[in-house]
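User: My instructor asked us to take a sequence, write out its structure as tokens, and then describe one feature of it. I'm not sure where to start. Here is the sequence I was given:
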Amino acid sequence: MKSATYERRDYNVEKIELRDTDEGQLITGMALPFNRDSQDLGGFVERIDPGAVDRTLLANSDVVMLWQHDSTDPITRESTGLKLEIRDVGVYFEAQASDFTERQLDLLQRGVVKQMSFGFLTVRDEWQQETEPVIRTLLDIDLREISPVTWPAYNQTSVAVRSAESVGITLVTDDTDASDEVPQAKSDNTMQETKLKLLTVDMDV
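Assistant: Let's start with the prediction itself. The structure tokens for your sequence are:
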């Protein structure tokens, strides 16, 4: 049994729609994009190959939608009505508006919560070190969750660093630590700005 590391990626939502249908109101939007470069993740950018989720979504998957990545605040999942569709530009979702609270719907419609995030395990990736910055392409992932989120957490992760090192690439940055540890407070209690670190969770698969 191999050990894999859970990763999350965020991006700005282009459009979340509330639509009236014969089956009731639906929330629709893009869950994750294909062939779109991420922000600089600390010496590299990342993109998702259009075939990266084929194996997951064509199998008997049960991707869950959480609110703000909070497993104690689930919205819905594939087995209870969440629909995911692979299109040319990405994966789109469709969920019943009734699965959201009134406050959640209000925050989405007003653009207070305006990013989507997806959680995954990397099965296969590819690195292009001839470019600057280096490009990591996700070729095959186990998609586990999608979440509307408030804050981006698009920083370098230890699992990406290890993947790069496995093919002989050393990611060097001026101010990004590959560790996901929470920075310790200074002894004089001086507040300082820190980048949000991407949460990783070790899992056995």
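For the description part of your assignment, you could build on this observation: DSSP finds three helices and eleven strands in the chain. Try explaining in your own words what that tells you about the chain.
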